Amino acid sequence: MTGHFEDLGTVHPTGIGRRRVRAFTPPGGAAGGKRPLLILFDGQNVFGDRGSYAGGWHVHEAVARFARTRRTPAPVVIGLEHGGVARIDELTPFSDGRRGGKLDAIVGTLVDELLPRVHAQFDLGYGPASHFIGGSSLGGLAALYAHLLRPDVFGGALAMSPSLWFTRARFAAFARAQAVPARSRIYLDMGVREGEGRSLPLTDAFARQLRARGWGEPAERGDRRLLLRPDARGRHDEKSWRRRFPMALRFLLAR
Fold it and tell me: What is the CATH number of the domain that holds 160?
């Protein structure tokens, strides 16, 4: 068994337009309990190569392997497609004066429209221990924002090569101003040479900011865990994110 896909139609964030949503349900049953949920931005890129301008992450294959080899229930994965040229507007929480700043509408739609719909359709666990959100590049930034803004809903963020450079000071101030959540899993990674070597120090600084506020290493098994994964051969591309995704998934779902 390989699992199956379902087209969930569209969601309509206010002021943004309709966005297509697809779901992948892994093979077999959730022997260890109800399934968790992982929502991923840039849904065109997270499954197969078709529709992705640079190849897909093949998340469904990684999740199917997880289902076969792990006792922890594998997640239902939701891919939320972006709006093409509007992507930088809808996946950023703040405007740089020319673009960006519409992410709150996306997060609100995920919480108020999409989550009730998928809970009615799939046998999912509920609450932050069962809801995760992720993405890469601008999608990684969006995932971090959604988690820190609504930790009561999303208990963890998967942020691969997050675009922490975009409105850098405002995002850092936002992160500092948020209450420390009772539960949090944050996965961060970055290629060593991304951004001509400037992106990893930004990501490391963000990780140090979180650690100073109480996030611990994965081995500490606390309620707030953080993993920063520098990738010596990683690039800012789907191929690198596809290779790193299985470890990110294992970290998010580890008990």
Answer: 3.40.50.1820
**Which residue bears the tokens 């068994």?**
1
Q: Between 238-253 and 59-69, two packed helices, what is the crossing angle to 10 degrees? A: 30
Which token pair is 115? 């989550």
Pairing state between β 4-11 and 19-25:
antiparallel
Q: Locate tokens 């197969």: which residue?
A: 48
First to last CA, the chain: 25
Strands (DSSP E) found in the chain = 4-11, 19-25, 37-40, 76-80, 131-136, 156-160, 184-191, 224-231
Look at the block and give the residue holding tokens 């944050």. Answer: 186
- pTM strictly above 0.85: yes
| Partners of 157 in beta bridges | 133, 186
Tens digits of residue pLDDT in 122-133 = 999 999 999 999
How many CB atoms neighbour CB 199 within 10 A? 20
The count of domains in the chain is 1
Range of 238's domain?
4-253
pLDDT score of 62: 95
Residue 102 vs residues 90, 99, 113, 213: alpha-carbon distances, Å: 5, 9, 17, 28
* Residues in Cβ contact with 48 at an 8 Å cutoff, skipping those fewer than 6 apart: 56, 58, 60
Q: Rounded to an integer, what distance in angstroms lies between the CA atom of residue 9 and that of residue 18?
A: 9
Among 161, 119, 113, smallest CA distance to 136 is for 161
